[in-house]
Design a protein that fits this description.
Elements lengths: L5 H16 L2 H11 L7 E3 L3 E5 L4 H4 L3 H5 L5 E4 L3 E4 L2 E7 L2 E2 L4 H9 L8 E5 L13 E6 L9 E12 L3 E14 L3 E24 L2 E27 L2 E22 L2 E23 L6 E19 L7 E19 L7 E17 L2 E21 L2 E18 L7 E15 L4 E12 L3 H4 L11 E3 L8 E12 L3 E21 L4 E24 L2 H4 L1 H6 L9 E12 L8 E12 L3 E10 L4 E2 L2 E3 L3 E13 L4 E8 L6 E6 L4 E7 L3 E10 L27
Parallel strand pairs: 5-8, 22-25
Antiparallel strand pairs: 1-2, 2-7, 3-4, 4-5, 5-6, 7-8, 9-10, 9-35, 10-11, 11-12, 11-34, 12-13, 13-14, 14-15, 15-16, 16-17, 17-18, 18-19, 19-20, 20-21, 21-23, 23-24, 24-25, 25-26, 26-27, 27-28, 28-31, 29-30, 30-33, 31-32, 32-35, 33-34
Length: about 700
């Protein structure tokens, strides 16, 4: 199967050869084809990859988490979090950090319908204007859509069903209302998510060829989520005032039948969370439209409660809660420079404060405070075919806290984080890029939380680690990209004090201990290649295919993605693994779009401190979609994990523990998206264009 990426490499080289031979007129024609107002399914930029969720039924038929797991190169697991091309991801929403991770993050993304998402930006080379705490890369979830003149409404629904031991339903509903006039615009997006699901898992100890079942669970889960996203935009002559308020409510239950050495129990859990996020943005604009000054004030509050009850016991076994407040103020300024083509300077500052408290049965056992003061400067220049970015960010940290028994190890440091990038344009559509940046990741509050907020039984103990230290990254990358879609690249991240999940065994009690710890040194290598292969290539040849003026999203093609990833830990003899993703698009008669997505990660590779005993993220997904009534109605049907092969079987390295996890991933469903027609004939939609500027997406109604 490794030979599958040989064809894309040969095709990539051929494209470069033909492209280099074309004259300037043909290059200009290609440019006119590439730069259109049509949104692209995948768009490759120098510092990021953009995935359009809104127009891809294969991605937006379920939850956000289910859609993310289908993106080529992205690994999302409960074991080691989210990674993209070997880089740990910091998750943003509408340009602002979510400040949640691990189990809480997965639960949040699982509770949000994917049809509420406009697009996903994965920023692989965040510059100095992004917080240094972004670590290796940023996953930015964009939920906003541009407003229409006069009132408009869009209704979306997706319904899915699984049938393993019994029938289980998952239903998403949402409605988007928006309007805009010459004075102000407003937007209101509301929705709900009802999901029934199942999980089967086990921990097995294998020593001296003797197998012992420590824990086996069969869990029936019920999740209910509601969300509201609102925004107001006021036009103040040239300036704008933007107000956003988001509310997310989650209420999840599970009934678990578990057994193992020395026990058998029926357990019930309930977790509830309320997340509120408010932001005010003032955008100062000047006669020179390339000059910008933005002020942003953001307040975030997140509360969580978790209960675990066991049949036959009156009092809860676990009664844990957490409370978090986050306040952020920042400003960003940019203006062009005269001595460079398309050059500009940018600078800004930031101050944020975070308070995090946890309680167990009403007793506070962690009181954590963090403050950050930061400033940055960045210069972008371009001279003909060569462009440079050079910047630096200084951040001052003050982290303190205490548990019931001791003070946390304080972290009070001032650090400087440089970044540099150089890009050479071989022609108008092909460029070569090299990047370097130094980043830091502060331990997430969910990893610090000493209380368990997920299921456990007599033989499983889940806990956080309040003494985790920040992680320092040195990220290097080289990449060759062509025509937005095609790329080949290599990256390496050197990290110190990487936070990883560890699963160990207490040999005396046979209790599985699941926690987090710092790894002193870690190096992650990632080689990756992505290439669309038009099916007409096999009938018309490469030269004729390159002459075709077609939209890639309306043609028949196969997108091939392959990557080799190696996690090097000095104390372990680690092995790498291959990641494959094949996405085929066929436009059938009557403009029915048929999309097939196959993903596969090979076995026998080390994923941090876990060794894959069997291939994982192994899934075959199908979808059929069609538009009706002048594209106002979109209908799709989908089948996910058709072969029922998506499961996790890992060995925890240097332990006799083997963990097996299977969820009801094979599902069948349909989704609809209906743009309710307006009676006002003057109503029109503002064109939606992907943001080509390197700044964060504002997450509000567009111009």
């Amino acid at each position: 199967m490794k030979n599958i990426f040989i064809l894309p490499i040969l095709f990539f080289v051929s494209v470069l050869q033909i492209s280099a031979q074309e004259n300037s007129k043909k290059a200009e024609e290609l440019k006119e084809v590439t730069i259109t107002k049509t949104k692209k399914a995948i768009e490759q930029k120098a510092d990021r990859t953009i995935f359009d969720f809104a127009s891809q039924p294969s991605l937006n038929s379920g939850s956000v988490l289910e859609g993310l797991k289908k993106l080529p190169g992205l690994i999302a697991s409960d074991i080691a979090g989210m990674m993209y091309q070997g880089k740990q991801l910091e998750v943003f929403m509408d340009g602002r950090p979510l400040n949640i991770s691990s189990n809480e993050l997965n639960g949040f993304l699982e509770g949000m319908p994917a049809n509420a998402i406009e697009r996903i930006e994965i920023i692989t080379q965040p510059g100095a204007e992004f917080p240094a705490t972004s670590g290796g890369a940023i996953l930015n979830i964009i939920t906003n859509k541009n407003a229409k003149n006069f009132l408009s409404a869009t209704y979306t629904n997706s319904t899915n069903v699984t049938n393993y031991d019994r029938l289980r339903w998952r239903v998403n509903n949402s409605i988007l209302l928006n309007a805009k006039n010459k004075y102000f615009g407003w937007q209101l997006n509301m929705g709900q998510n009802y999901r029934e699901s199942a999980t089967w898992g086990s921990f097995t100890k294998i020593e001296n060829q003797v197998s012992s079942l420590l824990s086996q669970i069969s869990s029936d889960r019920l999740g209910r989520s509601n969300f509201m996203k609102s925004s107001l935009t006021f036009d103040l002559k040239k300036d704008r005032l933007l107000l956003n308020y988001d509310l997310n409510l989650n209420n999840n239950n599970s009934d678990t039948d578990s057994k193992g050495i020395g026990f058998s129990s029926l357990d019930a859990t309930n977790s509830q969370s309320i997340r509120q996020d408010a932001v005010a943005t003032y955008q100062k604009r000047f006669d020179d439209k390339t000059k910008k000054l933005d002020f942003v004030l953001n307040f975030n509050q997140n509360t969580n409660e978790f209960l675990l009850n066991t049949a036959g016991i009156v009092a809860p076994i676990l009664d844990n809660s957490s409370f978090q407040k986050y306040l952020n103020f920042k400003f960003d300024y940019s203006q062009p420079i005269s001595f460079s083509d398309e050059g500009k300077i940018s600078f800004g500052g930031l101050r944020d404060d975070l308070i995090f408290q946890t309680q167990s049965k009403g007793i506070t056992n962690l009181d954590y405070e963090r403050s950050t003061t930061a400033g940055y400067f960045e210069l972008q220049t371009k001279f003909k075919s060569l462009s440079f970015i050079l910047g630096g960010r200084a951040e001052d940290y003050s982290i303190t806290g205490k548990t019931l028994t001791t003070e946390l190890i304080p972290f009070q440091q001032f650090r400087f984080f440089p970044n540099a990038s150089a890009q050479y344009n071989l022609n108008k559509n092909v460029f070569f890029n090299v990047n370097y940046n130094k980043k830091i990741t502060l331990p997430s509050t969910s990893a610090l939380n000493p209380n368990n907020t997920s299921y456990q039984n007599q033989n499983i103990d889940n806990t956080g680690n309040p003494n985790l230290q920040p992680t320092i990254f040195d990220n290097y990358e080289v990449k060759l990209s062509a025509y937005d879609y095609a790329f080949i690249g290599y990256s390496v991240s050197n990290t110190k004090n990487q936070v990883v999940q560890r699963i160990n065994l207490n040999p005396r009690s046979n209790v599985v201990i699941n926690t987090f710890e710092n790894v002193p040194e870690l190096k992650v290598h990632n080689f990756n290649i992505g290439m669309p292969i038009p099916y007409m290539l096999f009938t018309k040849g490469l030269a004729e295919t390159m002459k075709m003026n077609v939209n890639p999203d309306e043609m028949n093609f196969l997108f091939v993605y392959a990557a080799y990833q190696l996690h090097q830990i000095p104390t372990l003899d680690t092995r790498g693994f291959w990641i494959y993703n094949l996405m085929s698009q066929l436009v059938l008669p009557s403009k029915i779009k048929f999309v097939t997505n196959f993903s596969y990660i090979t076995a026998n590779g080390n994923y941090y401190y876990f060794l894959a005993e069997k291939p994982f993220n192994n899934s075959l997904d199908l979808s059929f979609s069609k538009k009706f009534f002048n594209d106002r109605l979109s209908v799709s049907i989908n089948v996910d994990d058709l072969l029922n092969t998506n499961r996790i079987v890992f060995n925890s390295v240097n332990t006799p523990l083997f963990l097996n996890n299977k969820q009801d991933t094979r599902r069948f469903g349909f989704s609809i998206n209906y743009k309710i027609p307006t009676k006002n004939k003057l109503a029109r939609e503002t064109p939606i264009l992907l943001n080509k500027d390197k700044k964060e997406d504002s997450g509000i109604i567009g111009n």
